[in-house]
C-alpha cells in the first residue's frame, strides 16, 4: 500500500523539506576543524524550533539528538558528541523535521577543510549516484529503476553500495513504504505513480560494502574502516520528471564562499 499525496500535500512536504535544506545550510557555515558534532546538533535544533518545526529524529526509536552526524567510516546514524572535527574528515549530516505534521528528511556529506583526492571522488560519485536515481524517479517506472541507476553510477567509480540501509517513502511518517534500495535490477519493485513521495539516499563506501552496528545501538560503520558517504533528497514522483523537494543550493552557496 503506497500513500499518494495530493498537490496540496506535496506543497506541505516541500515546506518541510525546505526547512531541512535551510537547516543544513546553517550547519554548512559551521563545519571546520575544531567544531564538535554536538555543537552542530544544538545549532540545528535551535534553528528548526525557531522556524516552527520539530526535530524529527529526536526521540525517534529513542534516538537522542536532532542530527545524525557520521564521520569518516561511520555510514549513518552517528550520534552527535564531543568529537571535534579535524582537517581531512568527512561528516555526513542527516536532518529530519516535522512541520505542520509533515516530515522533511535530507542528508549531505561535508568535507572538513581539505580532503584527499580519493575522498573527493567518493563524495562526487555518491552525489552523482543520487542524481542518477532522481532521473529514474518518474511516474510509470519502478523503484528498481532508481536502485539500478544508483548502483551503476556508484560502482562505475569503483565504490560499493551499502545493502543494509535503504531509502523510503515520506509523508506524515518518517518511514513509509516503499523501501528504496540503492542496488537492484531495472524493471523490478513497485511501480511509481504521481503523488508518491520518497527519499533516495545512497550510502556509498570507498572500500567493501559490509557494515556493522556499534554498541551504542545506532552508529553504522564500515567493517573495513574505510570512509563512507551519504546524500539524501526527498522527491515527489510526477509525470516526465521528478519534483525534487530538497535543495542543496543553500548549502552550496555557503560552501562556495568558504
Ligand atoms: Mg531518510
Ligand atoms: Mg535522512
Number of helices: 5
Biggest β-sheet strands, sense, barrel: 5 strands, antiparallel
Adjacency order of strands in the biggest sheet? 8-7-9-14-15
CATH class category name: Alpha Beta
> Within the CATH hierarchy, at the fold level, what is the topology?
Creatine Amidinohydrolase
C-alpha end-to-end distance: 45 Å
Question: Can you count the beta strands?
Answer: 15
Q: Please, how many domains?
A: 1
CATH homologous superfamily annotation = Creatinase/methionine aminopeptidase superfamily
Hetero compounds: magnesium ion
Cα-atom radius of gyration:
17 Å
Range of helix content: 25-40%
Identify low-pLDDT runs.
none
Class computed from helices, strands and strand pairing: alpha+beta
Structure commentary:
With about 260 residues, this protein is of the alpha+beta class. About 30% of the residues lie in helices and about 25% in strands. The protein has one domain (about 5-255): Creatine Amidinohydrolase (Alpha-Beta Complex). Helix 3 (about 115-135) packs antiparallel against helix 4. The protein binds magnesium ion (MG) (2 copies). One magnesium ion binds near residues 96, 105, 107, 201 and 232.
In short:
The chain is α+β, with helices and mostly antiparallel strands.
